[in-house]
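Deviations from the work plan: none for this task. Representative record:
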Amino acid sequence: MPITRRQFTAGSGLALAGLSARSAFGADDPIEAEDLLASQIVDTSRFKRPGPYTVGVSAGYLATSWIVYERQYIQWAADQHKADVRQLIITDAGFNPQKQVSDIEDLMRQKIDLLIYWPVDEKTLTGTLTRVIERGVPTVNVFGGFSASPGTVANAYISQLRLSELVASELMKSIGGKGRIVAVLPIPGSQEAADQLTGLKRVLKDNPGVELLNISYGSYDRAKSKQIMENLLQRYPKIDGVFSPSGHMNLGIVEAIEDAGRLGQIKMSPGDELNGWLKWVARNKTAGAVTFTPSIGKVGLELGLRILKGEPVPRGERVPSEYITPEKAVAIADASAPDDAWAGPLPREFRPR
Amino acid sequence: MTSIDREGGRLLVTRLATPLVLAAMYGIAAAVSDAFLDPSYVLNLFRQVAPVGIAAIGVTYVMILGEVDLSVGAVISASVVVCASVMDGDATRIPLAIGATCLLGLSIGAVNGVLVAYGRVSSFILTLGIALAVTGLTQVYSGGTSHGIVAPGFREFLNARLWGVVPILGLCLVAFVAVGVTYQRTSAFGRRLYLIGSNRTAAQLSGLPVARTIIWAYMLSGLLGSFAGMAMIVRSGASGTLTGQGLEFQVLAAVVLGGTTFEGGRGGVGGTIAGCFILLIAFNLVILAGLSSYPQLIVMGAIIISASAIQSRFAGPPR
């Protein structure tokens, strides 16, 4: 049932408060809580306007390959919807939260109809995004995770909780449901790291024969992850598996394991669809990948266009992650492309040079 | 004991302060984890420290002069991208890639050096600005994502171990350190660094080529930054645009921990390398001790503060 803005804001607040309180007692399923918020239908009638539209993209940063590919997916989507998108304006805050606030204000001065964004720091942006909505411009978050912030009308998102459960389940299968594992997670304190750990622990509950020895944070850095793994291999003479959903970090981790001569003893969890990781999977015929696709940029733009046409949309348009088997990795890994390329349907003419 | 003997003893302790702290720290680390008694693990430390260590040699020269180089992280990132781009997956292009990368480092260093020598801007602000500009240029060149493909054989050779034990990248570090220490101690350039760093006005009035020395020091810092970038490619295999981001702070911490101060006129490459190993042992020790992630940061900070305090106590105040 469509809801009004006041109900939406109050409901979000209550839902978040309820989630926090009930989570404190450990009574609620986080995936169900996320699905509940995402499935709320947003009344978009007040954003409806005739096209074509000027779309603003506020990038918190454009300095990682995943983000750059996401930008390219947005450009591809804009090209596919030429009739609806008059102009695409992209700004880059270069990791500076205050600059991102200024960027959004600049975009508003350029009379954009839709704001797509990924934040440096979401809390810094909430006030600005709320004002953008009040001025009749819908906001769509495409950072990867789901945002319940009042400054976000809708999200194109990937469920890190589901993704990490899928990754952990494949790892449990490969180690036969028993043994000792270590976890290398991304940036400490980040929502992705927290969600990945939650997903892993949920799967570990169903696999009591598996012991989690250590949790480290590789910060998506290949060299740092390699160094961490070199130390973990020294610390723990017996490791049966490594949980790490990141292709970047996995490439460093497997180098450390290969260097120690223990590749035959340690199973890797699936990484993501980073080309370098897919090449390794194809060569070694193990581990596989679980997708964390930058194509949510395209989904986000199309979601925004639906909002501008007044169609009711869910608060969260989830892009499912899929498991790529080692056999499929052989087919999709591109030996001629750099390691930092991302597999996916992005046409060649839109790929970063 | 005469006052000359006492002064000689004091100078010896000052010079050996950081290596003594490193030795003590190594002893504690070995007591906590027997990994530090494993020759293969210890030799691997040389491989791990190579990128920061190589870059820190050049920054040491600059800091002995009383200046600073905050652009080294950006130089490393740019070098990684340029090296991989020029290689383009072709082993026959490795010499060209190495040459192009060295030229890049020398050029950035020359710009830094000329502006510091002849401009009136502080080297802190100037090299920070250069770092931002170089980072931006790297992003423009690469489009924001990694660029180029590392040639087959390049990483494999430098990542290999002689006799299955001695890492070649670690030997490269030792070679760089040996050349760096020798050059600092035996060359006229090395002597000028200390004279200019101790008292620039006196050096100028004495007719020393101050500007030329500053420019050459920065060029060496840039050149060694580019070698550090190539070492990073060997360690990580990736040519990401932010590979060197933040490394300037690790390098500075190692240089200062090694006894080279911001005032200039003291310190040296030997102390810097000891400082690099102190930082590395602190990072590795907290993982090997089995500490969970957040306490690791607290303990690492405490180790570094303690090492710095003990080093300062041995070394005495700046003259």
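Residues 3-32 of chain B form the longest helix (30 residues).
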